[in-house]
Design a protein that fits this description.
The complex is a heterodimer. By secondary structure, chain A is of the alpha/beta class. Chain A is built from 9 helices and 16 strands. Chain B has 10 helices and 15 strands. Chain B has a 7-stranded mixed sheet with strand order 10-9-8-7-11-12-15, with helices on both faces. In chain B, helix 7 runs parallel beside helix 9 (244-256). Chain B is globular and about 45 Å long. The chains are: A alpha/beta, B alpha/beta.
């Protein structure tokens, strides 16, 4: 058994010590988890989406359990850019983990303003959230490739930070969306955000979520995510940050074989506080068992029938 | 699946003081996930069960009003307010009301089943202080607990703890009907100033809701006068847990009498430890409405934060 496994991965211009990144919206800014986890052991944290102005989010109920998954409609609740810069970012910087900062807006100008504000900070990657299903205009960007290209290009002009563009699966063609991000200058695409869904309480004859619809995540979406990651990997020349229902190290290996350079873990964090540290440990032992010395060798090695 | 931190093996026999030998600082180190062993699961009535778990770390550190999030047969965990703690035995107890498949699975637990437990979670009740100086200057402070539905369970722990700390205690509990009443004897045992029961159909105790019972409530003479001065002399703290209209009624009742009141909220949640923000509710804090997490800043809030004037 080899003593050491190299878990590090390259995602565009960024080097991550391992491929396991907390998915935006499932980990806050890392404050809560520092009590029970070494944040520096993670590949990184994609921190909760920040908007220009504070947002209070949607009214509760904001979550509903589904078969092998859950719906959420938080609605981008966040303290806004100024508070973020004064309070959250200094915390994250001091905590010393690899910072991916997710940003969201209603207009191209919003994204540009946010990216400009982050350009001279310790943020290591800017992730454009073009795909939140729970806000009024969230899907309008991500569902239209020309707009994906436009907003990505506009942000590209104002920052030299690596850009990950997080895409929605609620589209006819994920490859067109990924291609548009590439043409706009993205360094990677994050696949996939949640699938738009609904849960109903037949007794009250109401949707369970106050927002009526929400984003589906968890193992229920994993097959969709794997298919989309592989489709983009085979047709668009851009690194992929894979996500969707990852609960175990085996899931990570599947995503990497499908073509993901790194992954994000979301829903699993909500069920198991130690999910990510456990996945990282298990990745190492999986690789040892298989005689894999460099995990990144697996990226895209899926052999189609 | 994630490996669960193992609790120390359960000591054989009961009444052992083993739990106290555990390092308290370890129990408060921020560890969140424990393997909790089912000691017993007892049916209280048609839809209610009493589940006892061996989890000494949580028994040691848990405060009244806090909750645990338990794994079950379903995708998400299920949150339960801690209803009783036996620190010496290292056990906690929760009340389960049958609502769906998750609660049914937990209610069917046999002794020896090991559940993954997250806890203790959230911000609990602030119990009245009963220092020696207060006792020498008049009656001890009174804790009045009001609740209904699954909300009554955490009140039992709060009353028990308040009794231990030398407070006087009373409770007003509401049920749909006589056959739904549970744990009346357990509550009676920790209520020095009496237990008032209310049933919607009047089949036991006061006919009507908790609000109706509160309207008729006569606290002991020292605090019967509804004025601020009496409240200051023998402070009354009201805690409430149950359906929203009941919480509002308790808050209104307490506010009219200048009693401090805390309410414990329930909301659909995913993680239970602050990450997902799905359980946020509108809370007015420092004069400003904010969306705060029931699982993290709550579940217990000041009544005036939940029901601002």
């Amino acid at each position: 058994m080899s003593a050491l496994v190299d878990l590090s991965v390259q995602v565009g211009p960024s080097r991550l010590q391992n491929p396991v990144v907390a998915a935006s919206g499932t980990f806050g800014f890392g404050r809560e988890a520092q009590a029970f986890m070494d944040l520096q052991s993670l590949g990184g944290i994609s921190a909760k989406a920040v908007t220009v102005e504070p947002r209070s989010g949607n009214l509760p109920p904001r979550t509903a359990e589904t078969a092998s998954g859950l719906l959420n409609s938080v609605g981008l609740q966040n303290p806004g850019l100024q508070h973020y810069l004064a309070y959250e970012l200094p915390f994250m910087t001091a905590a010393g983990f690899f910072i991916v900062q997710n940003i969201a807006g209603d207009t191209v100008e919003d994204y540009v303003q946010l990216a400009e504000a982050l350009d001279q900070t310790s943020v290591q990657v800017i992730e454009l959230n073009l795909s939140c299903p729970n806000v009024k205009h969230g899907l309008s960007f991500g569902a239209r490739p020309p707009l994906i290209k436009e907003v990505t290009a506009a942000v590209r002009k104002v920052t030299t930070k690596p850009l990950w563009v997080k895409l929605t699966p609620n589209v006819t063609s994920i490859t067109e969306a990924a291609q548009a991000a590439r043409e706009g200058g993205a360094d990677a695409v994050s696949l996939i955000n949640t699938l738009l869904g609904m849960a109903i309480d037949w007794r009250s004859r109401r949707p369970i979520l106050h927002n009526n619809t929400g984003g589906l995540s968890g193992p229920a979406v994993k097959p969709v995510a794997l298919r989309m990651v592989n489709e983009v990997y085979r047709t668009v020349d851009i690194p992929i940050v894979g996500m969707g229902g990852i609960m175990t190290a085996e899931d990570v290996l599947e995503f990497m074989l499908a073509g993901a350079s790194c992954v994000q873990v979301g829903t699993a964090n909500l069920l198991h506080p130690q999910a990510m540290p456990q996945i990282i440990r298990d990745l190492e032992s999986c690789c040892q068992e298989q005689g894999i010395t460099r995990l990144s060798q697996l990226i895209g090695q899926l052999q189609l029938w | 699946m994630t490996q669960v931190n193992q609790s120390p093996p359960r000591p054989a026999g009961t009444g052992l003081n083993q739990a106290e030998a555990l390092d308290l600082s370890k129990a408060r180190s921020g560890q969140l996930e424990y393997a909790a062993e089912v000691i017993s699961c007892r049916q209280l009535n048609a839809g209610t069960f009493w589940l006892q778990l061996y989890c000494p770390e949580v028994a040691l550190s848990c405060q009244p009003g806090q909750f645990v999030n338990l794994s079950c047969s379903q995708f998400l965990r299920r949150p339960f307010g801690v209803a009783q703690v036996d620190r010496a035995a290292g056990t906690i107890a929760i009340g389960i009301q049958l609502k769906g498949q998750g609660s049914a699975d937990l209610a069917a637990s046999k002794p020896g089943r090991v559940l993954s437990l997250l806890g203790p979670l959230g911000h609990g009740f602030t119990l009245p202080q009963s220092g020696p100086e207060q006792q020498s200057f008049g009656p001890a402070p009174l804790l009045l607990a009001t609740g209904g539905g699954s909300g009554l369970f955490p009140l039992l722990f709060a009353l028990q703890e308040a009794r231990l700390q030398g407070c006087r205690t009373a409770a007003v509990l509401g049920f749909r009907s006589r056959d739904r009443v549970v744990l009346a004897d357990s509550f009676r045992a920790v209520c020095s100033e009496g237990l008032t029961l209310a049933t919607d159909d009047g089949s036991l105790g006061v006919r009507g809701t908790v609000a109706a019972a509160l309207a008729q409530l006569e606290l002991s003479p020292a605090v019967a006068e509804n004025n601020r001065r009496a409240a200051e002399q023998a402070p009354v703290t009201v805690i409430a847990c149950g359906p929203q209209p009941m919480l509002a009624a308790a808050a209104h009742w307490a506010s009219a009498r200048h009693y401090a009141c805390q309410v414990s909220l329930e909301e659909r949640m995913a993680c239970g430890f602050g990450l997902c923000r799905t359980c946020a509710c509108q809370i007015t804090r420092d004069g400003r409405p904010e969306m705060l997490r029931v699982c993290y800043e709550g579940p217990v809030f000041k009544a005036e934060e939940v029901f601002p004037e």
